[in-house]
Prior knowledge:
This protein has 14 helices and ten strands. The longest helix is centred in the last third of the chain and has 29 residues, at 319-347. By secondary structure, it is of the alpha/beta class. The N and C termini lie far apart (67 Å).
Amino acid sequence: MFQLTGISPLIWVLLALGLIFGILFIIFGPNRYNQLIRTIRCQAAKAPEYEAEEEEIQEEEQKQEQELEPEDSGHADVPRISVIAFSTGRTDEVGRFLEAIAAQDYPNIEVVVVVDGSAREASNLSETYGEAYPNVGFTFVPPEAHNLSRRKLGNTIGIKKATGDIILTTLTNIEVTSDQWLSLMVSQFGDAATEIVLGAAYMDLRPLRGPKQWYRRFDTLLTTARWMLSAIDGKPYRGDGANLAFRRETFFRNSGYGNNYFLHSGDDDIFVNQVATAANSRFMFAPQATVLVNWGESTRRMWINMKERYTFSARYLDNNRRVSQSLLWADLWLYNLLLVAAGVLTGITGNLLIPIIAFVLLFAFQLMQIMLYRRLATCFRSTRLWFAVPLFYLLKPLGDILFRLRYARNARFNFTYRR
């Protein structure tokens, strides 16, 4: 029952290959989360408080709470950052956003709110908030503008209106978690060589309901960790348009979104993939520089739309990333299949030694997956799943394929000439 003799060499080969593939998957897959966690914690620990001059601090204390610094405040020693915020025009949403910006500790801020609506809506917002926030400008995307990406057009209009050397694109439906957000993003532009800074923005998935919510949380966390790790490796291929900073000159030098004008998407993945390099890009993933995107009751629909959008635009990105990810998923399935095959083929002969070894190895690998995932989820303040993690890992490549097939008929709508 537990004899070493009589076991086919093929079984030992299967067991050895399963062990090798399992180790490789852990090393190049979940184990890399430790590097991301260390990076985030290091940036969080070193997050500098903005050091202002003594007289500037006194001026700031004299200002009313939630009021932006006027344009003539004389902060010539720090670069101006222009925040381009795309908005649906909801008054209460814009108000909360401007309050969060006013609470930032960075002194030289300009805000351009781009309303996806009419001139009247932009004018109404200007009348409501213009006096309270002198450094805020309002513009709009013409309703008659068709056959183009309204988000990219809105960003371009806002950037042309902006006067800051540094541009940060975002949305008005975000929750800002710290008053250091903008100062931390600007701090990464420490030298002239830095042209783009990737920031962290997470979709608020708390409104999700139903059994699929757990997989969607898992999928979102792994997708986010993947592009962040790529940025840490010096191979940035995407960011998040809700927290993406770059130099104004860089945007126009690279023709803005001109290279992907025919797509509705691409403002934060194709643009980053084409512009960012290891030499000219930085990242800021500290929790203090993180924003939370809140879609409310539309969260489920927006999650599907965003996944469909990034799945489609991936074809315009570097193929090396997709190949390496495919190899990792193949590694995952191979080590599971090899260990199961070794255990089953030996178990039917009545010898339980190999099945026990295979079971122990599988259990050990899956336990490592669970623990490493839970560490990552804790760092990202996401749901800390338990025994669903190994299953979700196996389902992830299959789920991506099924998602791609299910929404393949919608692919044509990603082109601007289709809507």
